[in-house]
Amino acid sequence: MSFTGFPEAALDFYDDLEVDNSKVFWEAHKDVYQQSVAEPMTALTDELADEFGTAKIFRPYRDVRFSKDKTPYKTHQGAFVGVGPATGYYVQISAPGVRVGSGFYHADAERLANIRRAIDDDLHGAELERLIATLSKKGWEVGGDRVKTSPRGWSADHPRIDLLRYRSLTVSRDYGFDEVIHTPELVDRIRKDWRQTRPLIDWLVRRG
Question: Pfam families, alphabetically (predicted)?
Fold first, then answer.
């Protein structure tokens, strides 16, 4: 199945799901989810797999066991291409449109320590600074989970303390309602953007 774009019905589906996140709504519109969201996402990631690898398409159901929010369904559909531990390329569709990203989304204590040691190193740390600065200039939004103060063992006046504070580090870009999301050209747009972030992914895999 070739990717032809996400139909308007995909955005409408998530608009409505945000208003009525219930099993009754889901069962009544399950065919819309399947045809307008799940199938196009599978086709999209299949076309990108030759270069980036096979994607994991996340289940639409929320894990509510330990959450105060008991709404049963996610209000977005995400897919992730992993190239390292919790590291790789991401795409999602939701009511606000399409969003892409790259980076590492979680690290255990050992891996996070390795990344921080690499950031501390003048050569490797400066390389990461340049990569992040380049992506920022190209319009990528830098984000991730950060400690509020200095991580244990690191001085607040470290020249790269802002990077050392990250417990996860991502870059993302919104396409929103750009007409491209409804066309086959979305594949090439994502391919180009993921390629831009590949040096960051390579750094994280090597240094983690």
Answer: DUF2461
Collapsing DSSP states into helix, strand and coil, what is residue 133? helix
Q: Give per-residue pLDDT as tens, 24-61.
A: 999 999 999 999 999 999 999 999 999 999 999 999 99
Residue at token pair 């920022």? 136
Is the pTM value of this prediction over 0.70? yes
- The phi, psi pair for 170, rounded to 5°, reads -135, 160
- How many residues are recorded in the chain? 208
**Taking the domain 8-207, which CATH number applies?**
3.30.930.20
What is the sign, positive or negative, of the torsion defined by CA atoms of 41, 70, 95, 36?
Answer: positive
For residue 7, report the phi and psi dihedrals to the nearest 5 degrees: -75, 160
Note whether 86 and 111 are within 8 A (CB): no
Per domain, the residue ranges of the chain are: 8-207
